[in-house]
## 1
Amino acid sequence: MNQPPSYCPYCGASVEGVDSPMHSRVETLMVYRCESCDDYVFYNPTPGGSAVVVNGDALLLVEDFRASGEWKLPSGRIELGESMREGVARELEEETGLVVDPDDLVYVHDEAGEPVPDQHMVNVEYAVPRSKTSGTLEAGSDATDARFFTPDEFESSSFILRESHVDRFGDESLPWLMEEARSALELQSNASR
Ligand SMILES: [Zn+2]
């Protein structure tokens, strides 16, 4: 369940909250119990991820189809059966047309958040250089535009970052993301030398 459950997903009976463990980061019950099934129902976050595609001093952003002028990293939720990297590679291709081997995605950062009240997510960001992607850059599903920006170019444009992006990374996050992605890629290339 990725929302606090009221009913048991197995038998439909009401469930009751069970105390959360002491180390819980949120003050929300995470474990519920169905007295009819005598089994537990867990309230868990949904995994998601983003790609930071680096091209020189620029990184790839997509314009969200829900809001013109609002941009974010290519990102989305992981689907059934996918690893984190496989899900991020699929989202990148769906939104931008760029194809990447999931194994070429390099870990950058991860964080937990609550983009919608009571719907928690855990996100992982991966970097890849543009040179390790193939395909033609073209906005796809969920995106109305896809472009590379340097942080300065974006800053001086009339565009803004989408609220979900700001919630996750902050208002002035592009220079930081750029730096984190480039140092992750550099470490990776030094290690494989
Ligand atoms: Zn039940």
## 2
Amino acid sequence: MHGLTDKLVLITGGAGAIGAATAARFLTEGSRVVVVDSDPAAIGRLESELPALTGSIRADVTQADQVAAAFEELDRRHGRLDVLINNAGISLRGRFMDITSQEWRQVMAVNLDGVFLVAQQAARSMLAGSGGVILNMGSTNGLVGYHHYASYNASKAGVIELTRSMALELGPTIRVNAVCPGFILTPMQEAEYTPEMRQAFASKLPLGRLGRPDDVAALFVFLASDDATFITGQHFVIDGGEIAGGLASQP
Ligand SMILES: NC(=O)c1ccc[n+]([C@@H]2O[C@H](COP(=O)([O-])OP(=O)(O)OC[C@H]3O[C@@H](n4cnc5c(N)ncnc54)[C@H](O)[C@@H]3O)[C@@H](O)[C@H]2O)c1
């Protein structure tokens, strides 16, 4: 990709499956990568796997004071921010009628409040510097309904709309887009779904396989690069064709 050499890239949830693959991919593009994550053990594992990582900051994205402190540290250490991958997120499975207000708040706090708090700090830094790119993590769950994930679905729909609104107000200095993956196979999902369940799902997809963290990393790298300088305010689905058709399109 063009224009990523020496760029300072910040990845929230960077110690998780998609975050770590994205960190590795930006490093191969010649970027400098700092991860933010609330899980110190996961950060430690990532630092051993990716010794080229530029830095890591432990922070909980739901806490405005921790987010502000993380950006102060980033500014002190690196003095700039070019690309934000606003990726930290959680999901809680449960029937709509069983969701407690505490569970609802927990999902919104990470997936929507966290994305807002981090994006606003990043935008401040980019507006004061020489501009940049913000890529928010959405999901196909923000575009169509899925059983038993009402809070997650609503939070990701919010991320997609926040992305459009940010793009309107932050252009032309900052480009803002959202990435919406379908089923990406991560260690957590390998633990949650049997190989038979995964195969059954994959066989329904036009592309016949589940996604990989690397697939998503490749889309982030493209959207952050100078190959995408006319793209803002959009969401990009990466799902093997999962939501190309609706119920009525099934044979
Ligand atoms: N895996 C999929 O199929 C899939 C599909 C669509 C979207 N997504 C989204 O991609 C993102 C990454 O998912 P993943 O599959 O890599 O999950 P993951 O659980 O492997 O990674 C999430 C990371 O976020 C961190 N995190 C969680 N809460 C945090 C907080 N409050 N503050 C800071 N860090 C926090 C976790 O410690 C973890 O390292 C999420 O936003 C998720 O909703 C995943």
